[in-house]
Fold this protein.
Amino acid sequence: MSVVNYAKKEIQFKIVYYGCGLCGKTTNLQKVHECAPAKAKGNLTSLATSQDRTLFFDFLPLQTMSIEGFVTKFQMYTVPGQVKYNSTRKLVLRNCDGIVFCVDSQVTKTQENIESWQNLLENVKEQKMDIAELPHVLQYNKRDLPNVAPKQYLDYVLNNGAKRIPTFMASAYTGEGVIETLNAIAKLVLQDFIEKH
Amino acid sequence: MGYALTQEDYEQLSEDLEDFISQSEARTVLLCDRGGNVIASNGDSVMDNIDMVSALVAGAFAATKQLALVLGENEFSAVFHQGSKISIFISGVDEEVLFLALFSDETNAGLVKMYAMKTCRKFGGLFKEIMSREQIKIEDPTQSFKLAKGPIFGP
């Protein structure tokens, strides 16, 4: 849910990285934090277990001047991917303006990706949002690993609707595709905001 | 979806938050929405990390609400965390907005709570009006929001 503050000339958006456990959502944010200029970023906060698994969310505030005359703030979140944390995922999804669905490209993770995508659709619907109206992109992550599924196969499984979702090949571990994904979702969110206002 | 604060809204909120700080002797006050967005703040601490504080407050309050539901309550309307030097009081203003007061041991928790509840009641009406406005409009109707040129986050 975008928040416009005319007094401070500031607009805030919320972007959520979603996906199955260990697909690389937190690594994406860590890489964004590493790459973003100091002036444009805040601290990266992770609410994680002692085993470094996301327990609640990771949070990274970013700041740009993407809309003329307004400071544009993007509040970046990840959800916990583990199946048992669904109620937490719903809380993090609340009022979000855009979603990056992070896909673990390994062949063995296909079922988990599908279940996570279905879970996203259910949670979005439950929050009375429509996925077709909500800017979102797919990131096929972990392309640096040897056992990855071809892009066509991942498209066939996850991106087979009438309207194709923008997809990005990435390796959050090496940083490849991370900023491209971020730029794409940020642009979709901004375009959506401008179209609606 | 979304909402907008006009110059007038923001001035009204700022004035009320300032009154709260002076009456309650709290150190900082923050208004944020339940999605974690900062709405307005006043006071001397946490300003460098205000986005993070706002995200954590929204998360903590949401988690507490889930706990309340499990225990058969609709919501714990206020949450109090006591520290050795700093304590915080979080209260729901309405369905969308949260109020956080951060105070030291130099003031009294009861005093902070009393003024916080008074301020929250006052804000309830204002946010009802803000949230019920049809949609966000740019202030000058001859203008529209424009994307700045160039990549958003570098190459």
